[in-house]
Amino acid sequence: MLKRLFLEHPRSVGETYFEHQKAAWSIALPLLGGGVACLIHGIVPGLFLKTGSRTISRLHERITVGRGRGRAATPASVR
After folding, report:
1. Structural contact between residues 51 and 38, judged by C-beta atoms closer than 8 angstroms
2. pLDDT averaged per 10 residues, the chain (length 79)
3. Furthest-apart CA pair in the chain: how many Å?
4. Alpha-carbon distance values, 38 to 27, 47, 77 (Å)
5. DSSP assignment, residue 16?
6. I need a surface site. Which of 19, 36, 65, 74 has the fewest CB within 10 A?
7. Which are the contacts of 78, defined by CB distance < 8 A and separation ≥ 6?
8. In the chain, where are the structural domains located?
C-alpha cells in the first residue's frame, strides 16, 4: 500500500520520490501565489491585473512543452 501511494506514480514518470515532490511543489507554489493574487484582484480590481493568467500561461507552457525534456513523454491519461 505505501509503495503504491508513494513510489508507483513517481517511477511511472521516471522520477524518484523527492524529484517528483520537487516538481509538484514547483507547480503548486506558483499556483498558490497566482490564486492569492486572483483573490486580491477580486477585491481590488486595479491590482494584479494579469498575474493569474500569466501564472497559468507559464505553468501550462512548462508542463506541456517541457514534459518531454529529460525523460520520456508520458500521455496525460497515464499520469
Report:
1. yes
2. 93 95 96 98 98 96 75 47
3. 49
4. 17, 9, 29
5. -
6. 65
7. 12
8. 24-65
Cell numbers that stand for 74 in this block: 508520458
End-to-end CA distance of the chain: 18
pLDDT of residue 69: 55
**pTM of the complete model beyond 0.85:** no
Exposure b/e, 27-56, CB count within 10 A at least 16 = b: eeebeeebeebeeebeeeeeebeebbeebe
Instruction: Tell me which residue has cell 494579469.
Output: 50
Mark out the alpha helices in the chain (DSSP H runs): 2-3, 9-12, 17-43, 51-65
Query: 15 phi and psi, to 5 degrees?
Result: -130, 160
Question: What pLDDT score was predicted for residue 75?
Answer: 46
Question: pLDDT at position 72, please?
Answer: 46
